[in-house]
Amino acid sequence: MTVFDELSRVTAETLSQFTVISGENDDIISELKTQILEKIGFDSSDLSQAYFDMTESDPDLALEELESLPFFGDGMLVVFENLWDLTTVKKSVLNDKQLTRLEHFLDHPLESTQVIFIFHGKLDGKRRIVKKLKKIAFDLEATDLKSNELTQYFVSDSGLQPNIVNLIIEKSNANFAIIRQNIEMVKTYADGRAITPDDVQAAVPKSLSDNIFDLTELILKSKLVDARALVADLVLQGEDEIKLLSILTTNFRLYFQIKLLLDKHYTDRQLVEFLKINPYRLKFLVGPARARSKAFLAQALRQLIDTDFKIKSGQADKKFLLDMALIRLSGIK
Predict the structure, then answer these.
(1) What is the pTM of this model?
(2) What domains can be seen in the chain, in order of their start residue?
């Protein structure tokens, strides 16, 4: 069960007196914040509701809101965000007296007041006040979603087919915020019609993985000049040579795996299940893997692994070694 499954059980009527959203994944924290405020119908103009960003708000005024009986309606909802003092982040917004007031409120809360705490960071479980809060709060921890959980969440959220969502996730490097952004981009591009993998390729900007795939293709076709130009462009964009080499090695390892499995007469479906890759991506990998010999792919893989070792052991400049690897790879027959 993901944190979003836990949140799905929450309604305005069932909201706990204390709710905590915390964690180090800011994209998921932002999504949880948006969803829970929508669920409870938060309205900044409603005088029975209050929001305090503790990096900007007066802590005493915020605490007074907690401690006061509601003037409008039967209850009060207060949202505190960026209360760094309760996290492992080395920041603080409250002094000792204010922290004592907050702890006292946790010990003796007003029944009419509900509080949502939004922490951008891990809670400091060693602190007494945090232990008290955890005992009484509904806890939503913003942890990274696993691959299958990302797919499940965005399929449910967007209504798109799993193969389309998986392709968008892959092209978004599994970044939660970028996945959401790219889903909206693809929907806009498709303009109401059924979305195809080609729509994803056309609408979503090329990721680093896409560029390395292009680089792999250039190497396989012995287009050295174009391969070196692409690497130079990626480095200018801020990508590190070691990272490029790592992804390039992963690609060649995948080609080698596919070649071995094809020799064992694996079908496309079996390849997808065994390698856990998107079927659309596989379509572009099988051809080159089938066209190259095991000896070629094994030699290329050894060359890349050897280059990685030389870089990490400081035998020469990483830019020079990567360039030499491209030359050697392009010369393999």
Answers:
(1) 0.71
(2) 3-141 (3.40.50.300), 147-203 (no CATH), 208-331 (1.20.272.10)
